[in-house]
Design goal:
Blueprint (H helix, E strand, L loop, with lengths): L14 H8 L3 H10 L5 E2 L5 E2 L2 H15 L5 H43 L26
Antiparallel strand pairs: 1-2
Length: 140
């Protein structure tokens, strides 16, 4: 299937078209929406509108269910973990770029100092780390 002229994330397909494109029954799409497996956009009249990315996700849910034998709760957890991994990779990418910039700045500063030149100011960066693990249980 070729990419539509609009982006993969633009919700344009009504449920009947999305069902046909994904090879699923419209009621299955409604069930997946209720379970939070796929979250289509909504039109002004509250009708579901699916994007090409949603349709690809519907196909993946169906594949995991039919070919891999994974139940819907397991599929939901897999999708959540995949989203989390993607977010972490994105965060790691940005941290890596900041580290490279800091290393370059330090190298330029060190080079300038060894040559008796002027010091080059280094931009300060604040990094905030969030602990997402639950707090340890305390004795009562």
């Amino acid at each position: 299937m070729t990419n539509p002229p609009f982006g993969d994330d633009i919700p344009v397909y009504v449920i009947s078209v999305a069902a046909e494109l994904s090879g699923l029954h419209p009621q299955t799409l409604r069930q997946y929406d209720r379970l939070g497996l796929v979250s289509p956009g909504r039109a002004s009249g509250r009708g579901r509108r699916y994007s090409m990315r949603d349709i690809q996700m519907l196909r993946e849910v169906q594949r995991l269910s039919q070919e891999e034998g994974i139940n819907l709760a397991g599929i939901k957890r897999i999708l959540e973990l995949q989203r989390e991994v993607a977010e972490l990779r994105d965060h790691l990418f940005h941290l890596h770029n900041e580290l490279q910039a800091a290393r370059s700045a330090v190298a330029r500063r060190t080079s300038a100092q060894s040559q008796g030149g002027e010091l080059i100011p280094v931009r300060r960066t604040t990094v905030t780390l969030f602990n997402t693990s639950p707090p340890p249980e305390q004795d009562r």
